[in-house]
């Protein structure tokens, strides 16, 4: 089946997607050359040369006209940011094999300079592969603004592939942003954090790596919201909410254990229990608040009677299996 074409305007231009406000600069290819860089970009270029790197080009990107530096950086001075996904050995192996076969490195990382070091929010696997192959330098697009490093994850080709990795990525960003600027609010970071549920789950995953977050995410999406307080204050609330989710997870685990004692054996038991105690399916209008809902569901999970569960109930529930 062919992909559905995007709606277009009378001029034949694709219509803007909902929420997109960008008006491109209209810069042509020759106009992207940056012969006279602004002072902060000129200073960044000077610092790169002092750090042992080489500035290859100064240019403006075509959408917003923002100045960037294309540079070769000493590999020992470049490291991955702490808030991106953990390095996958399988991914690194694929990269090293591909680079070995082509004998080329063709995909520059993105980096920001901080205290003489260079942090990459999207290049963890490529950096690891280059180091394994013995490279001494890496090609990078160096962005002057430190804050952009968090937004770049929205474009990241190495973005987390599963819920746990994504949630941990979000919570690492959360802690780092709270440290750098505790006055910013969650709603102002909607691009970086993606959704409130990921922040709560991230704090929960920090404490319990085998948490079945996939079973709880649909509930959280209904009742979790971006907090109005600055990050320095809302961080503590996120940790508290994570504790509420973990208490519910304990109650669900106890209910699953009782079902197994009764002879039920299925990879969908946790999803079944969550669906069994979740009242949102039958509610019309606004759902209860975060605490009220989880208090109700936790109580129901602790009181779940396996004697009232039939095998056909489990068969109908379906849902995602428990995460490993």
From TrEMBL:
Question: Locations of Basic and acidic residues compositional bias?
Answer: 302-315
In this chain the ParB-like N-terminal domain maps to 71-161
User: Where does this protein have compositionally biased stretches of type Basic residues?
Assistant: 7-19
Record field: transmembrane: none
In residue numbers, the region (Disordered) covers 1-34, 302-324
SUPFAM superfamilies in the record: ParB/Sulfiredoxin
Family matches, as InterPro entries: ParB/Sulfiredoxin_sf, ParB_N
Q: What is this protein called?
A: ParB-like N-terminal domain-containing protein
